[in-house]
Amino acid sequence: MRTLSLLLSLFFVCTNVHAQTTHTVNVTGVAFSPSSLVVTVGDTVDFVWGTGIHNVRAISGAFDSGNPVSGTFTFSVTFDQAFLNANPFSNNFYKYVCDLHIAYGMAGSIQVDTPGTPVLDLAPDLPAANAPLTFHVWDASPNSTVLLGYSMTGGGPFNSPFGLALLTPPVGLIAAMSADSTGHAQLSVQVPATMLGRSIWFQALDRTASVFSNGVFSTFN
User: Fold this and answer.
1) CA distance 120 to 125
2) Could you tell me the residue range of the domain that residue 147 belongs to?
3) Predicted model pTM
4) In this structure, are 69 and 43 located in the same domain?
5) How far apart are CA 68 and CA 74, in angstroms?
6) pLDDT tens digits, one per residue of 20-61
7) What are phi and psi for residue 54, nearest 5 degrees?
8) Within 10 Å of residue 121's Cβ, how many Cβ atoms?
9) Of 6, 7, 43, 75, which one is least surrounded by beta carbons within 10 A?
10) Is the separation of the CB atoms in 135 and 148 below 8 Å?
């Protein structure tokens, strides 16, 4: 890995405008319904309580309804760009649970689609030190060069000449990857054991479109 200050100067933010939609997830019994949901950036999800005592807590800490409650209650989360920037997670994928009913499998997930921007996805999404890690970038320009950057300092935001980067300088370059004809780029690495307990922020750049991906924050366990 080496420092690449030019990475920030090449980054560009693309803002997507669409008709915002409100989705409903029913919180009742020992299940969320639907338990899996795909939304578009800017959409809102209303968690609506039915029977039982429940809470809704994202495993990543991105959202939390608070202490378990019963009765008539609605907890709303808007997955706009500000939310994604403040809660950078692999593939914009947020898993959540009801703390009282984890043993019964009361869990769900929300994936946020961001049309027009590449998506950075880590496998596994909770990486570990001294273990393999694969970076996937989806929806990049076909046959383009994709730069994979990182920061050990923070997730920005940093105002570069061409937009907002979700990395705090100094920024390093992990690799320059080549996307295939479908816009997919992939890189597999071995995380050093010395990364145990350390935090890192990642972001990818599609050089052809001058658009960068979602940010991803990880602490290596």
Assistant:
1) 10
2) 2-15+116-219
3) 0.81
4) yes
5) 12
6) 999 999 999 999 999 999 999 999 999 999 999 999 999 999
7) -145, 165
8) 22
9) 6
10) yes
Cβ burial, residue 93 (10 Å; 0-12/13-18/19+): middle
Going through 10-105 in order, the beta strands assigned E by DSSP cover 22-28, 31-33, 36-40, 44-49, 57-58, 74-78, 93-97
Looking up residue 95, the CATH number of its domain turns out to be 2.60.40.420
More confident residue, 175 or 165: 175
What is the rounded CA–CA span in Å between residue 93 and residue 28?
Answer: 23
CA distance 167 to 154: 6
Query: Does one domain contain both 75 and 32?
Result: yes
Do 11 and 120 share a domain, yes or no? yes
Two structure tokens written together for 50:
């039915």
> Is residue 186 helix, strand or coil?
strand
Cα gap 178→10, rounded to integer Å: 17
Look-up of token digits 């049309």:
115
Indicate if 105 and 57 belong to the same structural domain: yes
Candidates 217, 221, 219, 179; CA nearest to 92 is: 217
pLDDT score of 201 more than 60: yes
The dihedral sign for the CA sequence 66, 59, 20, 159: positive
Give the DSSP H or E segment for 137: strand 132-138
Does position 14 have pLDDT exceeding 60, yes or no? Answer: no
Distance CA 11, CA 160 (A): 7
Kindly state the percentage of the chain with pLDDT values over 70: 90
pLDDT of 96 strictly over 80: yes
pLDDT of res. 16: 41
